[in-house]
Design brief:
two-stranded antiparallel ribbon, 2 domains, six-stranded mixed beta sheet, about 35% helix, alpha/beta, Rossmann fold
C-alpha cells in the first residue's frame, strides 16, 4: 500500500479528538449520584465516539490517496523488439521524384505517415528510435508506449544536413538492445534514401554487435526512379572506381551472420509494400511484461466516512430531547 500524499498522514492523531473532548450539553445538573447507572447509554456513547474517530480517520486516509503499486505480469504475445533507424539527411525532404520543384509527398513525410500506421498496428512490440544524418541522434529507448513512439516519429521532421552517416546510426541503433532482456525476436529497420560508406572497423563492430544481440536487419532503400538498384544483376562495377555506396553497403550487409532483408521503394506505394512485408515477418511469439495499474482506494475511504457521518446524523435525529 502506498500513498500519493503521505504527508497528510501526520493528521491521523487528530482523529482521536472525539475521545478527548466531552460532548457539550445544553443543560447542567447539580448532582447525578442518586441516578442509577445506565450501561446501555454509556455503551452507545462510546460507540458514537468510535464512529466519530473512524470518520475522521477515513477522511484523512482518503485525502492521502491510498493505492496499490503498479504490477508487471509476464505474458506471451506476438510481436518483436524493434529499433527504427531513420535517415534524416536533407535529401529525405525531397519528393520521391527527386526534384523539389515537383509536387508530391516527400520521402520523410511518407515514411512518417506509414511508420505511424505500422506502430499503431503492432500490439505487443517494444519499439525504440534512432535518427541520423551527419551523426546519430538517440530519440527514444525501447518502450511499449505507442503514443510516445508516434510522437517521436512525427518529431523527426526538421532541418537536416547533407550527410548520411549510416554507420553511426547502426551502431547507436544496436545500443537500443543492450542490457534489455531478449524477448525472442529482435529486428532493426533501417530506412534511408541512399547508402553510405562505413569504415572497416565500424563494419566489424556492427557485425559483432548484431550477432551478439541477435538482431535481424531490414533495409528499406528509398531509391530515385533513375538511380542505381541494389538488385540489378546486370550491374558491372568499374574496376578503377570504388563501388557505389548503395552497392557497397548491400554487399556488406549480406556478410552479416544475422538475418538480413533488403527492399527498394520508388514511391509511397512500394514503401507501403515493404513495411507490410516486415509487419508480416515480425509476428513471432515473444515474452513481454504487461503493466497492471494500481488500485486507488480514496473513493472507498470517502464512502466509508460518508456512511459513518450518516449514522451519526441518524443517531442525532433519534436523540431524546431534554425538557425545556
Amino acid at each position: 500500500m502506498s500513498f500519493s500524499f503521505p504527508w497528510l498522514l501526520w493528521l491521523v492523531p487528530l482523529a482521536l479528538l472525539p475521545l478527548v473532548f466531552q460532548r457539550a450539553h445544553s443543560k447542567s445538573y447539580s448532582w447525578l449520584d442518586m441516578l442509577p447507572a445506565d450501561p446501555l447509554s454509556d455503551l452507545i456513547g462510546m460507540i458514537l465516539k468510535v464512529l466519530a474517530v473512524l470518520t475522521l480517520l477515513f477522511i484523512v486516509l482518503g485525502l492521502s490517496a491510498p493505492h496499490t503499486n503498479q504490477q508487471e505480469v509476464e505474458r506471451i504475445g506476438v510481436g518483436a523488439q524493434i529499433g527504427l533507424v531513420l535517415d534524416r539527411s536533407a535529401s529525405m525532404d525531397d519528393p520521391f521524384s527527386g526534384s523539389a520543384q515537383n509536387v508530391g509527398e516527400t520521402k520523410s513525410a511518407a515514411a512518417a505517415r506509414l511508420i505511424t500506421q505500422f506502430v499503431q498496428s503492432r500490439q505487443n512490440d517494444l519499439m525504440g528510435m534512432i535518427t541520423f544524418s551527419n551523426s546519430a541522434m538517440y530519440v527514444l529507448p525501447l518502450t511499449e508506449n505507442k503514443e510516445a513512439m508516434i510522437a517521436a516519429v512525427r518529431a523527426t521532421a526538421g532541418n537536416a544536413l547533407f550527410q548520411t552517416n549510416i554507420g553511426s546510426g547502426l551502431t547507436t541503433g544496436a545500443g537500443l538492445f543492450d542490457n534489455i532482456p531478449d524477448s525472442g525476436s529482435r529486428a532493426m529497420i533501417l530506412l534511408s534514401d541512399g547508402g553510405g560508406r562505413i569504415s572497416a572497423d565500424t563494419q566489424q563492430k556492427i557485425r559483432d554487435w548484431f550477432d551478439k544481440l541477435h538482431i535481424s536487419l531490414y533495409w528499406i532503400v528509398l531509391r530515385e526512379p533513375d538511380g542505381i538498384s541494389i538488385f540489378d544483376k546486370n550491374y558491372a562495377p568499374n574496376p578503377d572506381k570504388a563501388l557505389p555506396p548503395e552497392i557497397e553497403l548491400y554487399e556488406f550487409f549480406k556478410t552479416m551472420k544475422t538475418p538480413f532483408n533488403a527492399y527498394e521503394a520508388e514511391n509511397p506505394k512500394s514503401l507501403q509494400l515493404a513495411i507490410d512485408d516486415i509487419n508480416r515477418k515480425e509476428k513471432k511469439p515473444i515474452k513481454y511484461l504487461e503493466k497492471i495499474p494500481g488500485k486507488d482506494f480514496s473513493n472507498i475511504c470517502f464512502l466509508i466516512a460518508a456512511s459513518m457521518i450518516g449514522l451519526l446524523l441518524g443517531v442525532k435525529y433519534l436523540e431524546v430531547k431534554t425538557w425545556h
